[in-house]
Amino acid sequence: MQIQKKKIYDVCVIGSGAAGGFMVKELTAAGADTVLLEAGGRGRLEDLHIHDWAYDLPKRGFGLFKQASLYPDDIRSAIEFRGDRVGVDRIRTLGGRTFHWNAVALRFAADDFRERSLHGIEEDWPISYEELAPFYSYAEREMHVFGTRENLEVLPDGDFVAESPRLRCSEYLAQKKIAKLGVKMIPVRKAVLLKSRKGRGACHFCGHCMDVCDVRAVWSSDITVIPEAMATGKLTLKTNALAREILVDKNGLASGVSFINRLTGKEEQVYARVVVLGCGAVESPRLLLNSKSEKYPNGLANSNDLVGRYFGGHINTGATAYLKDLVGKDTWAGDGATDHAYIPRYNHQRGKKDYVGGWGFQMNYNSYARPHHAPHVAGFGDSYKRRVRELQPAMFQIGAWGKVEQRFDNRITVDPNKKDKHGIPIPIVNFTWGENDLRLFKEMREGLFEILDAAGTEHVNPSGDTPGGFASHEVGSCRMGIDSKRSVLNAYNQSHEVKNLFVVDGSSFTTFSEKNPTLTIAALSTRAARYIVQQRKRGEL
Predict the structure, then answer these.
(1) 256: which strand partners?
(2) Helix H or strand E encompassing 412
(3) β-bridge pairing 145-146 and 190-191
């Protein structure tokens, strides 16, 4: 009888978003035999109601979650929040969050890597902006990031492949008026095709980026880096493979992954010489904490009890208002590529603060497909309808995204007594806003209304006077650092404790600025992938 030998891959990557996507592209290009595990299946555009009008949907769309097919297994309820409520994203689909995202791609500034040295809070990153800059450039070219050169210290210019689309009418008007405050509005920077490529259409400015781009102009790993990796013949893709535990060998090294086949409900294993996590800032620590063994009773790579700690994201607020100059005017020229404009951080130019950090404003990323003001307009009948129509072309929506201090007590844990439908302990999000966060939020909200007043708006509908967060921008639960006693990963996203284990998603962030995280995730993952290739050639992994 012939006994079949156990297949051992060079690398097992878990998660197929920006982190996992860039990782498998780099590994397979270097010849590594790689397996990619994705907990979800392939997203189907026809399931998502992308261009359906509200009046064509049951109950006019009220209560309808258009993207329900991307969040199976009751995943949105298989989680517990303790403390201040925040929003996290645990999508399960090939491409991860890049399958539906706003595609804003911003570099961190040099000072964003040095919070301890400059401001005395948190920790400095173990790498500098200068070290990461070449990987930013590579990611920008791969993702087709457009933008304009502005020479701003707080928002470094990128290696843009095209200029941003023109601002829309409302943004031009607001740009001129808020300039009198010393506040600069610039064209947004996004990973979106402006000219068609094979298999992908150009942006046609329909305003549905967040709903999933049906022509696939928005960069997504499932249509770019993953197919490129598949084309090498070196990638094995396993969808509907929900990782439940990282396996270890007798030497304490990662040896593979135990996963649930979501289609059969059965447990399976894959084996690899290196294991890479790209599951996000909630799911990566959850997986490590659920990977307990005799050698690692507190969870894998967690002898210092830091896995899951220093969890954070962005603090947000926003408002929808209407420019007086445009009320009743015909200005429609297409809905646009969601937001076309961005206001970079400016508070550092206004004197000493009693908090550390800043914020940026993103404009008009809400869809024009429905009148957001309609529930707030007084009256009824013809006069009500007339007023709703008059205000619609004048919409000027603004969202604020601010820094959150990553603190020790904010953490992801698991509860062995509370399990999801597959029998895996669920994540517990323990989070409260700190004093620095609340002071920043107060001035950020005041700044939002200052912008709206200067722009000349009316009928302002704010989102509320209490903070929101994190809006899919969660980070920091497996942070990088030089000191193995104060961090989980080293400067190459490698576990201090388990040398063949890497974490390359946003959980690796040492600190977090006001900028969106995806571009930095892509750059870090690329850098880590090339390090893995180098170390394997040297026989170190």
Answers:
(1) 247, 271
(2) strand 411-419
(3) antiparallel
